Amino acid sequence: MKYLAALVLTITASMGVNAQTLQGTDMGASCHNSDLLTGKLITDLCWDCIFPIVLSGVPIGGDMANQPDDSPNAPFCFCDDDLGVPLPGTGTSLWEPTKIIELTREPGCSQVLHTRFPMDRLNQGHHKIGGNTQQSTFQHAKMYNAPLLQMLNMFSNFSCGVDGYFDLDLAYLSELDPTWDSDELAFFMTPEASLVASNPLFTSSCAIDAAASTAAGADDDALFKPLREMWWCSGSWGIFTPLTGNNVGSDSNVTATSLMTAKLLYSLHRRGIMHRGNGADAMCEGVIDTTMDKQSYKFTLIHPIPETESSHWMGASEFRWGLGRTIPAVGEDLIYYVWRRNDCCLVYGNAN
């Protein structure tokens, strides 16, 4: 962790930010300790959300419908080795907790690491300010690689690593991303946003995706899923574009931060940073996919009041899962665990 702190200090110093030692940094009135890197990472996780596990085409727990529509569920598979020789393997599939995303109002605040990086305090985030019809929300985002199953040696076969991360690591800070707080700069990543913004049919049609995502809000009701065809919609949370931390509307804090979480994943996919782990073409290695598959991910709120019984699909209404999940003053900056569907070919003889 000391190397990570040194890297952040070097980057922030190059940006003209006053560097200070991270150890002993004042956390600030709005930056609280989540205690996440303790036993809470185990006790506050929805372990049943790993299911259904599909091994060699045979489901183990859970509902087979509770996975992406095109999950291969093949009993046997083949992957090429370094010389291009196909090696046989067993198809396996499960939901894995893979990323942690936290949203905070205070720049540089890390509730996960219990520290505050020396960022400019002028760009303060906020919850719903402005008039009744033009309220806005902005928060900073941080993403951590946290493949918990690999970290606990519960599922450590290297051939099933979607993106090559096997340990806890800070992967993204929105404070260092000039597009996160600028709708204009973010537009150049998604020029198709102009089509969505100028056509009310696109925004109004999101009600269909919202209904499908919300109907699938519980793990035991998985006949419905987010609609892939409606790539501009994030269900009841809103539309993806612009890919920034800005959210205009009277949405609750839970809905606003859920949309920001989805936007961040979409943005990193667009940049070729995130990998898709589901589908027949991803069984041998993760696929760089610049258009995010909404059925690839599920979410659980892990702080301040965790979801421990079930996960929710992208776009599912908070009325199914998010009511009463915040605590005034000390629990208004939320942390989500991102679950990714991993379809993998366990190659025989490769159990490293």
Oligomer description = single chain
Number of strands: 16
Q: Residue share in helices?
A: 10-25%
Global Rg: 20 Å
Mean pLDDT across all amino acids = 84
The major pleated sheet works out as: 9 strands, antiparallel
Structural class: alpha+beta
What is the helix/strand order? HHEEEEEEEEEHEHHHHEHEEEEHE
Explain how this protein is built.
The chain is an alpha+beta fold and 352 residues long. Strands 1, 2, 3, 4, 9, 10, 14, 15 and 16 form a nine-stranded antiparallel β-sheet that branches. Residues 1-25 have low confidence and may be disordered. The chain is globular and about 60 Å long. 43% of the residues are buried. Helices cover 20% and strands 23% of the residues.
